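Anyone else keep sequences and structure tokens together like this?

Example one:
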Amino acid sequence: MDEEPALIDSLRRHWRALAVFALLVATAAIVAERRLFPAPELEDETPVAPAQPAPSAQTDARGGGSDADKPAGAADAQQGAAKENPVAAVMSETVAVDARPAAVLKGQGKWDEAAKTLSSALEKLTAAVTKAGLTVNGRPIAVFTKTDDTGFSFEAMAPLTAAPEGKVRLADGVEIGASPAGKALKFQHRGAYDEIDATYEAIAAYLDEKGLDTKDLIIEEYLTDFKGEDANVDVDIYVFLK
């Protein structure tokens, strides 16, 4: 996969561009400041409460009751607090992401139809993997490879237990490749995919606050399936560190 030098700069104009552009501007200022005044070493993982924890029949993402068990208005109060303090809208942890063999489907889309485009690509990818009799090893991901003001290019990937011997192409334009690897910060988005821009804004604020340097590489891992254009989807977002 080719890295695009301006990927983070332009990742979301419609959804992500403004947040990630602000991230880079803040990061550049922080880097300059740190060169003059070296900061003490950051502590390891600093978790903060998610704005929209994943729903569960028993507990939410922080071990408390689900939204259905909370008093009326509690969820709205949490969301309001997250808007006032965007850093508290995500949960982060530092992880080592290993490269894995993967079935890869390249695609393009418009920001207005991102959920539809990604869900369609993942369905086609799953069908090709199933037809080839390959074993999936993990949830599907999307690697954003190029963006502009109106749309984006991406690589949808299905991690595999092993790459098939002697086969580099599957049906419907699916190829065999590998997923990215490196040290990354893992964040959570829980809720409507069309509202993921708010999560990216919180991520930008978090990286700004911590003074972290990032690569031009962001991955979304879909823990639940898209169901309709306005689907709620559990997404883990990986921002790779320099």
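And example two:
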Amino acid sequence: MSASPVVVITGASSGLGRGTALAFARRHARLVLVARGAASLEEVAVDCAAAGARDVAIVAGDTTDESTGDRAVDTAIARHGRLDVWVNVAAVGSYARFWEQPAEEFRRILDVDIHGYTNGSRSALRVMVPQRSGLIVNVASILGEVPQPYSAAYSMSKAAVIAFGRSVRSELSLAKSPVHMVTVLPPTLDTPFFQHAGNRTGRALKALPPVYPPTEALDAIVAAWKNPGTPERTVSGPGKALVRQHRRRPQVVEAAIARQTELGQFSKGPAAPTTGNLNEPSGAPLGVTGGWGGRSKQTGRLLVLAALAGAAASAVRAARGKRD
């Protein structure tokens, strides 16, 4: 593990990507920051330099364009001669009933959230495999394991990211390559994702409780760098419990998630349809946090997850009782 790693981060202009850039900056990394907006990247670069980064470069581009990943790798090699860590964070989302969402919006989400990751990973592996060292961190989501309504494309994409990691890890193993690929599965985070998301539900969107501070997901990403031997990291104890319960009793947990989404995902009042940042930066806030009060809702989120897990456990016990 390099004391000053060369790290490429996609989606670095806001939210978890911006937080990841600052987390590695505080560890004196040499950074290459990737996002669509050059001006916002310049701001993040200044913050990272102030936080302790040894070097910061920016690459403005859309991750669905294969050349963006190649340019980021070329920048890292030209400046530092190597690439140690690639973190795929850039993602978009839009909330709508599946049959009411335009097909082009659905395809765009899959393109960014799947092909954006595979494009970047391919560019990175072309250097890491011959280099015989390196780590790719793919930020997926608990929704990849426990999907929710109104976000079919996003949930699909995160399930694909999980499967992608498992497949590539097996290929690296067969190739006897020391390169690692780690998947991180966060729950709902207090980031501007919801201000940037598209919305065709007719209702104002907000972060779905339980909301977690981004620090827990950032800790998981840094932990993957320090210990890449753990292939998947689900963020938070209650999140892990929810995933376990879903595997045991999927219908019950999915029904509970659907009810929680209907009750907690939307604010009062109507909202006009918007594509959010699907096709271009939305102009919404670009900080790390989104103002959803992650820490202040610790008790509430634990109660919600406990209720979901309890409902699943009760269903399992009832089913066992019927069999007996």
